[in-house]
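Record type: monomer structure entry
Structure origin: computed from sequence
Chain ID: A
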Amino acid sequence: MENAPHGSITDVPGVRVGHAQRSDEGWLTGVTVVLPPPGTVGGVDVRGGGPGTHETDALDPRTLVPTVDAVVLTGGSAFGLVSAHGAQRWCAEHGRGFPVSDRPGEVVPIVPAAAVFDLGRGGVFGHHPDEQMGYDATAAAAATPEHAPVARGTVGAGTGAAIAAQRFKGGVGTASVRISGGPVVGAIAVVNAAGAPVVPGAPVPDLPPWATTELNTTLAVVATDAALDPSEVSRTATAAHDGLARALDPVHTLADGDTVFALATGRLELPSDRPARVTSLVALQAAAATAVRLAVLDGVTRATAVHTSRVDLPVWPHAPA
């Protein structure tokens, strides 16, 4: 495997990312939207003990609709999930969604979402993303050209992110891996973990006993241009959680809402022969875990110190390899 040219989730053809955020007057939060091409198949795996999610049941392989129109990552804990309604409104206005009649425009967009906990980090507990912020982030994603660079660090849903028991700044990171002669796998992560980054050769700080009671969450979206069915996409989301476990310690705690979404755009067919397909899926899912790990560490590296009413959070002192 090798790094793709831009090292971001937008290396996957047709996948776009947009952000909206506020960091003034008691605000420190935002929304990040991943906008895939129409017909993209979606899956999800929720591992954290304190998740804040929306429409994740719709991604179960046993349900009716296999496709996803947008994925929303938001701040604001459960309050911020309303931002998914804004993304849904944008998709409906542009005819993107599951058709429910023969009449044009009568569609129901499938927009799953997950939230990180950043309430009160900008000073005012009640300042959290709303529907308009979700709409704006989706419109921003749609306005970017294909393969556009992704803004990283304290942007979008990573605006109020913190890590290591809220002692260091977190943020948004992204990365990609290309399987030689095969698909591209990209990931984007919002790193707001109770745990600390795991960086080869760097010391891991001793977290206080209450560290895992701090309310946090790390979210990720992994995307590929391979053609996968709903079960294969869901399994890819499961495998991608290994990237979180390699990059953060601890992870998947009761105080985290760790969630990974997976998207398959269907551009590249995998072998239909079962043994060859299994081999391809193993390689793809290993790449998904690698891309998530790199995206998490990228988010830690790209974070910048932002003033909050509580503390000026420093950046993580050890650059990931």
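Annotation 1: Residues 98 and 108 are 5 Å apart (CA to CA).
Annotation 2: The mean pLDDT is 91.
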